[in-house]
Amino acid sequence: MKKSNASILLGAAFLMATSAIGPGFLTQTTVFTEKLLASFGFVILISIIIDIGAQLNIWRIIAVSEKRAQDIANDVLPGLGYFLAILIVAGGLAFNIGNIGGAGLGTNVLFGVSPEMGALFSGIVAIGIFLVREAGKLMDRFTQILGFVMIALTVYVMFTANPPVGEAVTKTFVPDTIDFLAIVTLVGGTVGGYITFAGGHRLLEAGVKGKEALPEITKSSVSAIGIASIMRIFLFLAALGIVAQGLQLDPSNPPASVFQLAAGNIGYKIFGVVMWAAAVTSVVGAAYTSVSFIRTLHPIIEKYHKWFIVGFIAVSTFVFVVVGKPVKILVLVGSLNGLILPIALGVMLIAAYKTKIVGDYKHPLWMTLFGLFIVIAMSYMGIYSLVNGIPELFK
Length: 395
Hints:
This protein has 17 helices and no strands. The chain is an all-alpha fold. The protein has one domain (3-393): Amino acid/polyamine transporter I, CATH 1.20.1740.10. Helix 1 crosses helix 7 and helix 5 (80-111) crosses helix 6.
């Protein structure tokens, strides 16, 4: 494998993984650990299996068709690509407001500045990445460095929390309870909405495509889920260590209290670094991928796509600074993101059997069956969660 290709593949994996690891990821992992205790390990295991199945299918079909997801959807059914693009961009924008808010919270913890000022600073940093000539390479390197920082710091906190690892391993395979809402939320937060397309579209832009690139693409797609899952597991164990000691998490900021209870004031500052890194890399990933969904829909967007990305980040920052973070709307969009996955994956599976899209490529039967299972399971669990979980939010 060429060195440049290896760098692009790693960059795509980290772009996808750090897009998934945002403020919502940190909060959801902590909240569900407090609720389900060691049995949350089972939820993580099931979500990893679903994540890999979804991502393998989607990245392969993007690669062999050599088209972005919205163009594939339009080829399956005219107009479907526009519908998918609207869903992705709306979800991406709502999530980005939360990501900007998370970045503001991180700077508030680190430097004591107001979350609004921190959000403004973070928005400028994210915009700066897309204003340089080699924006793609800088984005890859930025997400890799901050990804490593997040994981390393979380590992340190996990060890100081002293979790009951044996119980966690046991309950991962024999849980006390199975929570559908938790599974849908985790899958939606890892490969839902725009996230699973982040790396696939990045590889396409970098020229890693076609049947001959499939082994590399498979490795990159699984690596991306692996990176996000490692972070999830370490954070789960850190939170479990705190909860198992009978300590109470602060409901206004559960992940911050895990870090603080585990490692005191140093832990609190570490949380600031992790939160900022998680948030600002998600801002970059959400903006890049959301705009990649509308790039091919009009020549003007294609020509000025970099400025559309800058505008996307600027609007997200403006909304947070002026309006604040609409928590309930963000949770609602999070659940809806879980429902975008079966739609998007279903479209991709249909496309895999259309020769005008994939040529003479033969999609593996086991992947199709795995993908169909995910479409059915996520549709069922997503609707179940919406019907039962969303009314609770708006009481």
